[in-house]
Amino acid sequence: MHLGEAIGTACGAFAATNIDDIFVLVTFFAESATNKRMSPLNITIGQYVGFTAITVISMIGFGISLALPSEPIGFLGFLPMLLGFWALLDVILSRGGGDDDEQQHQDEHLQMTHATRIKIILKVATITLINGGDNIGTYIPLFSQTRGAEIAVYVVVFYIGVGVWCVAAWLIMKQRHILMVAQKYAEKFIPFLYMGLGVFVIVKSDCYPWSIDHINRKLHSHPGQLILALCTTGFLLISIGIMFAIRWRQRQKEIAAESEAENGAVNATELVEVGSRASNEGRQLDRDSSRVPEKPNTADTSLASTILTSEDDKRQIPP
């Protein structure tokens, strides 16, 4: 295969297996409009890390002669679905606040630590890997039909394509009207985007038909649909219940901390007001004392009166 043919095949394979990644990346960039920790750089790094994992798994699958089925990977679509439920609980249980609460929320997002950055990158990488079941299923047979040099061309083209996809999703979110809507409503819609992403991954991977078929082959009564329905319902109910309990406890602690902070602020304000009143009263007393007229010296007044009287008497005596 010539270089041009290899590049064309790689571009076609990447486009066919990563069209849905535009939706995933737009979801991440929409979240970055309200979550400063979800920066474009962290999203891009996470996307590359996840795609690297997909490539490595594809190489391993190629090495073990297609022994790795791609369908079961689709069950990992429950992870973004549960992330969406967690974000929805956060929206429901959070108290609506004013500008101060929004400013505090933004300040918390601005506090980026190394551990937080790693968590964001791993989050993006994990969802990218989960959504890569079709990539693995496509790349393994593709690699099996090529030679070493062609595989290198494929990998290089794939990595360039990841960068192009990230830039395209970022440009979509940079449109002013899209960005304004995202900043206003993203926090409320992000949970449903994640849940939709999880459903999309599960449906696209055909993990349920694949599992039902395997169960029915082993059991003569063909209970595959019933077994998966019960397992899915139980798993979701238990997971959502645990998340609700955890989030409820966290919210109660936050409310208690906010109440203590408000009480402390009120006490500090009262102390300041008392001190201010005392200072004002002290200044008022100083002004009043400065306005009191000084009493004349009675001794000096009596002496002056005696002198004036004696002089008048001398004038009245005839010579």
Structural features, described:
Helix content is 84%, strand content 0%. It has 319 residues and is mainly α. It folds into two domains: 3-202, no CATH class; 206-287. The chain is elongated. The termini are far apart. Keywords: Membrane, Transmembrane, Transmembrane helix. Residues 298-309 have a biased composition (Polar residues). The chain crosses the membrane at residues 6-29, 41-67, 73-93, 152-173, 185-203, 223-246. Residues 283-294 have a biased composition (Basic and acidic residues).
**Integer tally of domains:** 2
Series of secondary-structure elements, N-terminal to C-terminal? HHHHHHHHHHH
- Between the first and last Cα atoms, what is the distance in angstroms? 155 Å
Which structural class best describes the helix and strand composition? mainly alpha
Largest sheet: none
Portion of residues in helices?
Answer: over 70%
- Poorly predicted sequence stretches spanning 5 or more consecutive residues: 97-110
Query: What characteristic shape results from the CA principal axes?
Result: elongated
Number of helices: 11
Backbone CA Rg: 39 Å
Could you state the oligomeric state of the chains shown? single chain
Can you give the mean pLDDT? 76
Proportion of strand residues: under 5%
How many DSSP E strands?
0
